[in-house]
Design a protein that fits this description.
The protein is α/β, with parallel strands linked by helices and 218 residues long. It is 34% helix and 20% strand.
C-alpha cells in the first residue's frame, strides 16, 4: 500500500488571491508571517484581511520569539496554529511552557534555530507535538532558499516517531520529490522556492507540484 501524501503548508502569504487559490488547490496550511524583518511580513491588520480567505483550522501564524501579548492578539485574530522560530538561548526560562499554556501544545509548532551538529534539545521535544526543521542561517529565520539537512531530519523523525515533523528549507520544484522520498516527511513547508518575488507565490507552479506529489503516493 502506498504511503499517504504529505500535507502541504505554504508560508509567507501576502495576498488574498494567493490564499484563496492555494486553499482551492488543496494546500493544507496557509502561513502568514508577522516577523517584521522578513521580506514576507505583514501587519496584524493585514493578516486579518488575508485569513478571512482561509478556513479555520488551516491558519498558521509565523513569527520569531513573539511576546505573549502578541500571541494572544494573533489568537484572537483567528490564527489557530502558531509556528514560532527562536534561538533557544534567547528564551527566558518558562517561555516554552507559557507558549504552550496560551496556545495549546497541539497548536504550537516549534522551529528552533540550531547551529549544525547541535543536539535537538529535549525540552523543546517535550513542549510541543509538532516540530519544524529549517535550514540553518546565521542571520535569518527561514525563507533563505538554503536546503535543510535532510539526513538530520530523517534521523530525528526516526528517533521521535510520535512527533509531527515538518520539513522546510530550500524546497523547490526541482528537489521536492527527492526530499519527500528521502526523508519520508509527512508535512512539507514551501516558501521561497515557489515565488515570483518575496511574498508573491507562483500558485500555478504549486498546484502542478501538488499533483505530482499526490501521484507519487498512489
Amino acid at each position: 500500500m502506498a504511503s499517504p501524501a504529505p500535507s502541504i503548508k505554504v508560508c509567507g502569504i501576502t495576498r488574498e488571491a494567493d490564499a484563496s487559490a492555494l486553499v482551492a488547490a488543496g494546500v493544507n496550511w496557509i502561513g502568514i508571517n508577522l516577523y517584521g524583518p522578513s521580506p514576507r511580513s505583514v501587519t496584524l491588520a493585514r493578516a486579518r484581511e488575508i485569513i478571512i480567505k482561509v478556513p479555520a483550522g488551516q491558519r498558521v501564524l509565523v513569527d520569531v520569539e513573539p511576546t505573549l501579548q502578541k500571541l494572544a492578539d494573533c489568537k484572537a485574530a483567528g490564527f489557530d496554529r502558531f509556528q514560532l522560530h527562536f534561538k533557544p538561548a534567547n528564551l527566558p526560562e518558562g517561555t516554552l511552557d507559557a507558549w504552550a499554556d496560551l496556545l495549546g501544545r497541539d497548536n504550537l509548532w516549534l522551529a528552533p534555530k540550531l547551529p549544525p551538529q547541535t543536539p535537538f534539545p529535549t525540552e523543546i521535544l517535550n513542549a510541543a507535538e509538532t516540530l519544524l526543521l529549517d535550514a540553518y542561517s546565521k542571520d535569518a529565520y527561514g525563507g533563505t532558499g538554503k536546503t535543510a539537512n535532510w539526513e538530520l531530519f530523517r534521523e530525528l523523525k526516526s528517533a521521535h516517531p510520535r512527533k509531527n515533523w515538518i520539513l522546510a528549507g530550500g524546497l523547490n520544484p526541482q528537489n521536492l520529490l527527492e526530499a519527500v522520498q528521502f526523508t519520508g516527511t509527512q508535512c512539507i513547508d514551501l516558501n521561497s522556492g515557489f515565488e515570483t518575488a518575496p511574498g508573491l507565490k507562483d500558485t500555478a507552479q504549486i498546484t502542478e507540484t501538488l499533483s505530482r506529489i499526490v501521484g507519487l503516493h498512489h
